[in-house]
Amino acid sequence: MRPKKTRWVKCLPGERCFRPECRKSAKLAGVEVSIDEFEALRLADLEGLTHARAAGLMKVSRPTFTRILSSAHMKVADGLVNIKAIKIEGGCCRVK
After folding, report:
1. Where in the sequence is the domain holding 62, given as residue range(s)?
2. Which of 4, 16, 30, 81 has the smallest count of CB within 10 Å of its CB?
């Protein structure tokens, strides 16, 4: 498998884990969102940038950005719908 290219992010997230209050932590499953997936969500959904512009900021191709964003959407949706903790960590990133 080919190594992942380094992705650039503006900043690291302040909070790294979000847990629903309705379940005890011991019984709570989790989903892991990488830092580059978190950055893709921030750029596309919060900042409203086009995939091409956001990909340029992260220094990846537009198709790669779209794959990162799609993966992030699936993980966050899984966490919200199935009442799981969402943990932000990992990925091959550098802070600008």
Report:
1. 34-91
2. 81
